[in-house]
């Protein structure tokens, strides 16, 4: 298949593009930044907030993996984060619809639940989180990701295409884990905001590959994460300390993630294969 990957020069985007190329797909990367020297896909320097560029680049492709976005609400004006992310999502999805693309895979976020950038505390309705859990975005980034899912959903209703929104926690590599995660562990309030969740970049890329290739009906919103948390403590103890009294539909075993991965396994045949312990 010919697949457009937006945000292909970023951490997640370059892993997704590489996985698609390795699987034999014809990949076109779209990013404002140049690719790394090792990139093995056609690169187009363009901004996803430019509708004309998106419309041209998505022509004659079979699928789109939309990843381009400002990845957090910190360090940028909230208005810029919201405007950029929603405009990029609308432009790319609309370009896909107008060009007759049949499959969209959208890089969503666990932030649609309200974490980790909330201003007023967010308490889970139940654990583990699944696609039925109510969204509760507060900040500009979380709201932009939720509206991105809704833009995809509208396109599915309108054009009958197939779509997958992958709701992901913090994307990590061996290098970034040591730099970003380990120092954070000692701050109980911060890691509770993160829901102790992470996802190896290569596992994320494999989920995008499955979301492109597997048969899908309608629009599936799926949580994906590593199978474990990034903490040393058992998950039950973490939950009891941070969110006491939250109903547990299934008690966590050991250091198990608080995200229900069964839906992704059923829909995509995907399961995480990497852990920070392998780093």
Automatic annotation (TrEMBL):
Tell me which domain of life the UniProt entry assigns to the organism this sequence originates from.
Bacteria
Can you give the residue ranges of the NAD-dependent epimerase/dehydratase domain? 3-218
Q: SUPFAM superfamilies, alphabetically?
A: NAD(P)-binding Rossmann-fold domains (SSF51735)
User: Which InterPro entries does the record cross-reference, listed alphabetically?
Assistant: Epimerase_deHydtase, NAD(P)-bd_dom_sf
Q: Which residues cross the membrane?
A: none
Which keywords does the record carry? Answer: NAD, Oxidoreductase
Which GO molecular function annotations are given, in alphabetical order? oxidoreductase activity
Q: Does the keyword NAD apply?
A: yes
Q: Which Gene3D superfamilies match?
A: NAD(P)-binding Rossmann-like Domain (3.40.50.720)
The answer to whether UniProt assigns keyword Oxidoreductase to this entry is: yes
Its family remark reads: Belongs to the NAD(P)-dependent epimerase/dehydratase family.
Please report the name of this protein according to its UniProt entry.
Answer: Nucleoside-diphosphate-sugar epimerase
